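Minimal example, chain plus NBP.
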Amino acid sequence: MTELSRIGVTGLAVMGANLARNIARHGVPVAVHNRTAARTKEFMEAYADEGTFTASESVEDFVASLERPRRIIVMVKAGAPVDGVIEELAPLLDEGDIIIDAGNSHFPDTNRRTKDLAARGLRFMGVGVSGGEEGALNGPSIMPGGDPAAYAEVEEILTSIAAVVDGTPCCVHVGPDGAGHYVKMVHNGIEYADIQLIAEAYDLLTHVASLDAPAIGKIFEEWNTGDLESFLIEITGIVLGKTDERTGRPLVDVIVDQAEQKGTGRWTAIDALDLGVPLTGITEAVFARTLSALRDERKAASTTLAGPNPSNEANRPDLVDDIRQALYASKVVAYAQGFAQMRAASEANGWNLDLGAMATIWRGGCIIRAQFLNRITEAYAEHGNIENLLMVPYFTEAVANAQDAWRRVVVTATEQGVAIPAFASSLSYYDAYRRERGPANLIQGLRDFFGAHTYRRIDAEGAFHTRWSQDGTEVRTDG
Ligand code: NBP
């Protein structure tokens, strides 16, 4: 009889196949399965010699090939397919077996599945895996959520396959229920903001600094040696430097300017609205992709709507470095907002998230991996429970140093008619956050006028209403 496998992977598209290979390469026998058997066959033909694999065509054989408690990674398309696979697996499993959903599931689905399966005696884990296909194969950032006792059963395998930075694996138990998928969702949201900020910098360098793609690629290469050093800045340099084989032009110049999305950025923004957390950077990034998709409308508007045409008149010697500083300051804001959102979610759900540990496991393997995350890890180590990263001296100072350049970039872009939704909204957030008294007093006054919604006074306790349409007197409404 063949040896039982320590873990199984069902779903052998690019992510599942690479995770299975990564696990097997670490000496762990892996059972593999896919709905369409041909894919399993292809997998075995290509990779069987990389480790100890047991392939099964049927779910029954797959389950029977696993040691107990069974540990099964489900790596299929998020949504209904995950429920479908669970329904096939669950009747074949025994109490205490563990189903691990390592796809990009929406965290409320993970909460629901955890509860449903617990009622059936099964343990369910929602595990965020970041790093794309390359990460899955060579070391992703892993964000496991679920029952800590279930995590203990897979910890060794998951930490062994994760990316490692400074000797620390990029894998830590995040929290119960959907906490792992939640943190992965915010990670992806931050990725949206990072990418949007890079795109805005590229737009300004193209249309105001009048540089071509290869020249801008060189600038990103240089930026990757400083504060901005990160995977996304690095690959921006590579993508901008690529020449299109068909036309000989820079490849980016022949790519259609419509951004697609799979939904994690939108989920992050919706969750922020539900939690009441100001999350302007990520949300603007989602809207920017949505606006980019309106290609036909934009084409019509481009010859109808008035505005300045960007010109290099605004080009000045310090423009490129100003843009770098604006990018850095806006990035600090996007991360500050994302971490504030995770803090709020942790409190709302009783997850007790260790936010410093989240920054630590994002330092390697994942798409937003960056030097910068070390500063966030250090901030949490030094200051503990942080309300807003902008208030940590390192970031307070970094943004203070960048703010003049940041303001100049926002002014220049606005004068030149270049859209910079993430740069500008990040600066507005910064300016609103640092105000002791903002203009919401007037909002409350208006709400009281048209809806008797009441207001509070700065000089007295209680809720008040002015009888606007009667005698204009003020009454206390709460006692
Ligand atoms: P896909 O998201 O493209 O899903 C394809 C896999 O799902 C195939 O194995 C397919 O089986 C299986 N599947 C589907 Br579709 N419907 C099914 C059903 N009803 N029952 C059983 N299996 C079903 O694969 P992927 O790109 O490898 O991503 C897997 C997960 O990882 C997703 O949640 C994704 O969001 C997440 N993720 C992807 C990346 C990335 O860079 N691609 C990064 C991080 C996370 P078949 O072969 O029979 O059609």
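The pocket of NBP is lined by residues 11-16, 34-36, 39, 75-78, 81, 84-85, 103-104, 129-130, 132-133 (CB under 6 Å). Residues 7-177 form a domain with the Rossmann fold fold (CATH 3.40.50.720).
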